[in-house]
Amino acid sequence: MVLFTHAGRAQPNPVLPPVAPIRPVVDDYFGTKITDPYRWMEDMKNPELLHWMKGQAAHTQSVLNQIPGRRILLERLTEWSNASPARVSSVLRLPGEQYVYLKTNANENLARLYFRPGLTGPETRLVNPDTVQPTHGQPVSISYFQPSWDGKLIAVGLAAGGSENTYIRIYDVATGRETGETIDRARYGGVAWLPDNRSFFYTRLPQLPTDAPKTELQQKKRVYRHVVGTSADEDQVVFGYGVDPAIEVGPTLLPRLHTFANSDYVLASVETGVGGGKAGYVAPLATIGRPVIPWRKVCDMADEVTDAAVHGDDLYLITHKNAPRYQVIRTSLKNPDLATATVVVPPGEAVLSGSYIVGEGALHVAEDALYVQQLDGGLGQLRRIPFKKSEDESYVALPFDGTLAEVQADARVPGLLFSLTSWVKTPRPFAWNPTTRQAEALGLQPEGPADELKNVVVREVKAKATDGTLIPLSIIHKKGIKLDGTHPTWLNGYGAYGIPQLPGNGPLLSAWLEQGGIYAVAHVRGGGEYGEEWHRAGYQATKPNTWQDFIACAEYLIGEKYTTPAHLGGLGISAGGILIGRAITERPDLFRAVGIAVGLTDMLRFETTANGVPNIPEFGSVKTEAGFRILHQMSAYHHVKDRTNYPAVLLGTGINDPRVDPWLMAKMAARLQAATSSNKPVMLRVDYQTGHGPGVTKQQRLATYADACSFLLWQLGHPNFQPPGSGSQN
Prior knowledge:
This protein is of the alpha+beta class and about 725 residues long. About 15% of the residues lie in helices and about 35% in strands. The chain has an eight-stranded mixed sheet, sandwiched between helices. Strands 25, 26, 27, 28 and 29 form a five-stranded antiparallel sheet that branches.
């Protein structure tokens, strides 16, 4: 084994990675026999597996640490990250100009929660994760927060080590002190305060015995009512799995209750949690907790409703039924009837869509208007539909073209807040004032020298897929570079759940461009760039379009001389593991190096994990013959072939990952290491204090960026990242 393999020269490696033993297991799926050489790795308590993973991690880190240029790159990433005195996000505005938000100062590793009475008022830090106990030796982060309607109390979700094992604590804004109780098993949050400002609804996972199957972990969720100052053990269950015989809530579904300012009604939703339509019910708020709750059905999943908002007696809904780019309809809150609903925003070219974050929809009710978030040509828009009939519908004038996120409105306050970013501008919070018709920076986040990239070209083009479909492709690079195929090129893609890949900026992009690299994003089918049609075109049986679109984008970059296979790298994260894994197993000749981060690679066995069962609606199930054939086709692990010239591969996982069990990356690493004949490295990076991504600290994030960039720049031939005496990449 060698540390660096490059142009025929190498340096000895003092840390050798262990070799995984092969112990074949044969499964019979509807008459098709599938051999799994590393089934033994699926037990994350197996000491042999843990020892192998630690050995792999040590080897990987020793290699990455010795790449020339990595240390300087990490320093530059840190400089960019700390260029602004502070970064502010998740801003909420309450009546009386009260603001609650997260802020990370330049010298801090995790976001803190702050309160401010007015934009010029004194800032009070409410929650410092560094002082939260217990930590179990892992960094604690804020998962979510929700203030009571009067702003006097805040429920805060906290989790350690990126585990997403979230628990709720409640803070008194006036004193900054906790109220004393802890609510565990609150990963999905869904905190909805009641008008008394002393109680709230929330969604909770079941309490399982220690010997329960791991597939039960995320099933049978219920909604509880908690009264501040009491024990969570006393909380009353009010909705969810097995609660109301008149409302079926399947074991894998996510139930939630939603309350609204100035409304005496509560809305219940039931969804898969991975996209698709929601079932909805409405009832008088005062009846919740009674033996019989008079729920009235609003919609079922076949109605393909994805978001809802309330104003007075009006219930606004977004649906993609017979409208793949979505439409807004309105019905009565007290007597909902979709058959007679009024179309408020008809289907059009733009896709009506929110921020693709749980709890952030496309409908936002302010005191003055309904604001509808939409996506047009990859750019965010806000449509304003005033409640006064004397006013005309209009669009919010945004400060610049880019990606909208963290859109927040309050039915008691006019206007709304939002964050805006682009390929060349870092995220910044703004406020829209309906009186002045202006959007202005909130001023909570100081300006920094790295807020905008200079001398950068952004090109939006389209690559032709194998079936003739034109696939949007974003290409970003420094001005003045010669398109001669020599530039390290990083092609990113995702393609799942109807989630689009939208413009954004940060230290990673800055670092890559500074090194002369080209960054590209393939907007493949399976995402949501063009609404539900685009999603369904890369979904279950049509999933091959996802990686074939990615391959088409790679071929476009090569054909237009942005790069060559010797200088082309790729990345897929999470569900993007399907995309990148199948791209290299189908066309290993196209890529010199790729990264697979917390990726889905073994789709035949994903269903055996805690998060696999909830994902069946997106990918399918091996319990049917059709489902098996679909999943086998998208399973990169099962398409790895022996004695094949695979590209260099860096696989990454977090040991606390609750969404993609770490063994998926372990099995894929072992299989590629055994199969590749290219003499290019296949390495497994393991972080023992992170999970799938949420809750990662700044330091962890920058270290991951440095490792990924250094690995790709090394393999793609950048001269500043080559070991001494290695020569140039060909």
